[in-house]
Design a protein that fits this description.
This protein is of the alpha/beta class and 247 residues long. The protein is built from ten helices and six strands. Helix 4 packs across helix 9. It binds iron/sulfur cluster (SF4). Iron/sulfur cluster binds next to helix 8.
Amino acid sequence: MNRQEKQVLTDRKFEIENLSDLNHQFEYQSPDDLLLWGAEHFGNTIVLGTGFGPSGVVLIHKITKLQLPIKIFCLDTNLLFKETYSLWDKIEDRFDIRIESVSPILTLEGQAKRHKEELWKTDPDKCCYLRKVLPLQKYLSNKKAWITGLRRSQSEMRKDVGKIEWDPGNKVYKLNPLATWTQEEVWEYIEKNDLPYNPLHDEGYPSIGCIPCTEPSTDQSERSGRWKNLEKTECGIHLPSLKNKLK
Ligand code: SF4
């Protein structure tokens, strides 16, 4: 990183001086208030990232309803379920929007050749890094903020997520408008607004990611079924900011 790039980064990090005041302010405000503030503050440099989970669907609905000029993207690992791709199409049609696909540099064949066949079996962290973390870093490198569907009730790891955070991994701000929502509130909203959702949820999948690392689960936890039998609970795109919270 050259000196000019370092300065841009420093300016960006301290663009919001009163992060903790803002968090107090937004703690009891609605997700709509935070989305409106984000769009006003960051203009066309804020984006929404979604994997089409229930929280993402809620946020897409809110953004389109409020007519905010926030672009939406999905990290497409090329390993998503056909049900996820068809939900993607359905959402684009229903809201008359286009959701950008952010892809890894390596195709699956390229990854197998350069690293290992079915890398997710032997080194899932590296696989997530190549197919999710790196593409996201690249995509966000010319943005100032991104919006996520992270919620505190999703897992122990996520229990402290703030409404607005500095994301040290991607060097942008991160807005979590649904941080205080429960799973019940999300599903109530989906039902009330008759929103589409991934049908795999009705087949026992609490959380849905890539095919090789997602299984049905009877566990009550919202993230169960991902990387079953491994200690891993996060793909890595949120880890730097989550770990930052633990400090
Ligand atoms: S979730 Fe699994 S398949 Fe998807 S990128 Fe991570 S390790 Fe690879």
